[in-house]
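[step 3/7] fold_predict: job queued, chain A
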Amino acid sequence: MSFQFKSLALAACQPTPTTTTTAVIAANKNVVIRNNTGRTIWRFYGSPVSVSSWEEDILGADVLSAGRSINIDFADGRRDCNYDMRAEFQDGSSIVKNNINVCRVSAVSFP
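[step 4/7] structure written:
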């Protein structure tokens, strides 16, 4: 007995712009942020590279103590995968990491 596959069935499996867009939006954007600076991070920002300013402080009223880590979900409904991240300290100094692909990495360490 032989089987024949119709090309129509295979064509239905090809990605379309809609499925690709949905896949990017639904991508796992959970990233563990590790504080290896030896200092407490007082504010933390993560903004898509397409945005020209830092958005809200992700930590809010919390801080990220030295040696600790936090899981941040960057899934905010946007298609962006590449984010700039900024860790800010009490004295106003900061460390910035640019163009981090949150769809592909699972952890980012500061410094």
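[step 5/7] annotate
Residues 1-23 have pLDDT under 50 and may be disordered.
The chain has one domain: 29-110.
exit 0
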